[in-house]
Amino acid sequence: MFYFDPLYFVFAVPPLLLAMWAQWKVQSTFAKYARVPTRSGVNGIQTAQVLINRNGLSVGVTSVPGHLTDHYDPRSKTVALSQSSQQNSIASVAVVAHELGHALQDKENYGPLKLRGAIVPAVQLGGWVGPILFILGLMLASEPLMWVGVIGFGLAALFAIVTLPVEFDASRRALAMLQTNYLLTDQELRGAKQVLDAAALTYVAAAAQALTTLLYYITLMGRQRD
Ligand SMILES: [Zn+2]
């Protein structure tokens, strides 16, 4: 049953190319604006402090190793900033404001963020049990087992799709906060938007990959039935 399946490539290659392009786009856009200092002179750390104060957030700031590894952790209420995001550049300020956009979503109980948090345990379980059960179902020609597997993939796809409004909304909030707090000029904001749009593209690619994987497995099920 582990034969070369051309159909797999039809499903897998387009989202893979999109993911590679998105990766290139985010790396190159970040690199470009990481070299442009902000006119206000603020760095990433200061941006975090200003936005935490202005929005009345009770959020801690920590350091995280790696490149573009920045994230907001809703459980510990901390924003983890990578080394490059702590510098003075349009790219750092954009990334930091985006993470604080997530903190603001958390404070306001933004629906998609709550939903994403709620399905995380099921997604983690479904992510590794799903493929195993599906393949087992294929081998045993058991439709119920295959369905359980498909539900596992479905959860992963749901997670990737719910991530989209969460990420787009965080970037929208980020740009609004940078503007209202005069951290960036209008021209600098256009650069910040490019950085955040490129980052959003990686999430679009991840959702496309999750969806096409799900479709591929559903197609395999249909084939098995024939
Ligand atoms: Zn984000």
Low-confidence stretches: none
Strand content: 5-15%
Helix content: over 70%
Give the ligands present: zinc ion
Q: In DSSP terms, counting alpha (H) and pi (I) runs of 4 or more, how many helices?
A: 6
What is the CA–CA distance across the termini? 16 Å
Strand order of the largest sheet: 1-3-2
Major β-sheet, in short? 3 strands, mixed
The radius of gyration computed from the alpha-carbon positions, rounded to a whole number of angstroms, is 20 Å
Give the topology string: H per helix, E per strand.
HHEEEHHHH
Indicate how many domains the architecture comprises.
1
Structural class: mainly alpha
What's the mean pLDDT score? 92
Count of distinct strands: 3
Shape: elongated
Quick overview:
By secondary structure, this protein is mainly alpha-helical. It is built from 6 helices and 3 strands; from the N terminus they run ααβββαααα. The chain has one domain (6-225).
Notes on the structure:
The protein has one domain (6-225). The protein is 73% helix and 6% strand. It contains six helices and three strands, in the order ααβββαααα. It has a three-stranded mixed sheet, with helices on one face. Strand 2 and strand 3 form a beta hairpin. Helix 2 (44-54) runs parallel beside helix 3 (90-107), helix 4 (111-140) runs antiparallel to helix 5 (143-180) and helix 5 (143-180) runs antiparallel to helix 6. It is elongated, with a radius of gyration of 20 Å. Bound molecules: zinc ion. It comes from Candidatus Thermofonsia Clade 3 bacterium.
